[in-house]
Amino acid sequence: MSIVEQVNQQLRRVARIVNKVTPVTGAPPCRLGIDLGTADVVLIACDEGGNPHAAFLEWADVVRDGVVLDYFGAIHIVKKLVEKAERKLGCRFTSASTSYPPGTDPYACINVLKAANLELTGMRDEPSVVAQLLQIDHGAVVDIGGGTTGISVVQNGQVIYSADEPTGGRHVTLTLAGNRRISYEEAEAIKRGPDAAHILPIIQPVFEKMATIIKNHIAGYSVDQLYLSGGTCCFPGADQVFAAELPDLEVILPSEPLYLTPLAIAINQNTESSDART
Ligand SMILES: Nc1ncnc2c1ncn2[C@@H]1O[C@H](COP(=O)(O)OP(=O)(O)OP(=O)(O)O)[C@@H](O)[C@H]1O
Ligand SMILES: [Mg+2]
User: Fold this and answer.
1) pLDDT tens readout for residues 4-39
2) Do the domains at 3-123 and 135-253 have one common CATH topology?
3) Where are the domains of the chain?
4) 28, 36, 102, 125: which sits with the fewest CB atoms below 10 Å from its CB?
5) CA–CA gap between residue 168 and residue 170 (Å, rounded)
6) pTM of the full predicted structure?
7) How far is the CA of 26 from the centre of ligand 1 (A)?
8) 257 in ligand 1 pocket by Cβ < 6 Å?
9) CATH number at 3-123
């Protein structure tokens, strides 16, 4: 089984168990990962083999592109999610891994964890943890989150270039809200709902523009494969728009891309920084 298939199995498991509080008896010892994002805070607890046993997501507005806007709000959410994981797994967590968008201050997230009484066990930038999890030797990692799109180039297993662009899922939702003359909340519900495919013609130009931005960033690098990450890539057909707009690249969409970075964080036990932002 390929590494992408293995990770896909773990991601599908995260999707099945996310926000399920029913206690698990006899869970193996787990390590914790916490992803403080612009749109949400995600906690995943995995065993040594990388199998997820608890996952909790809370939509939140406490962080913007690696900058903690609401420090006490962020600590409160982290503590709450850790307590849920502890109740579910019947254990105490005293440490966790986290991550940060390239070019931002890692201490923003570290300080939130410390204030939530968690020692740091792993800390690397987001594209590096994803590249490590997927064992990417050469390629591009594109993380389309709520507020930003992170574009990174990996060569010989190392991130050698990273950039952040101010486009993401929020932009997609605003486009739909403007087109349909509905509220942001209504548009967000449609975007994430069962009939999302019907609105592709309205928001396709946003994805096409993202593809152009990606193309410009990776021009000049030898890249054949583009790995998608981030919740915005859950939108049905988004990967096909990227594949059509970037015909020279193989576009790889993992299952449940919303959970790829948090899973990579939970599995990462490395504290190296390899920030290659230009
Ligand atoms: N099923 C879905 N279809 C389309 N978009 C989705 C879906 N699920 C989540 N999203 C979008 O994904 C975005 C959140 O993704 P993610 O959790 O990767 O962002 P984040 O890490 O919080 O943000 P950032 O990386 O910008 O800090 C939101 O804009 C949300 O609307
Ligand atoms: Mg993110």
Assistant:
1) 999 999 999 999 999 999 999 888 999 999 999 999
2) yes
3) 3-123, 135-253
4) 28
5) 5
6) 0.95
7) 33
8) no
9) 3.30.420.40
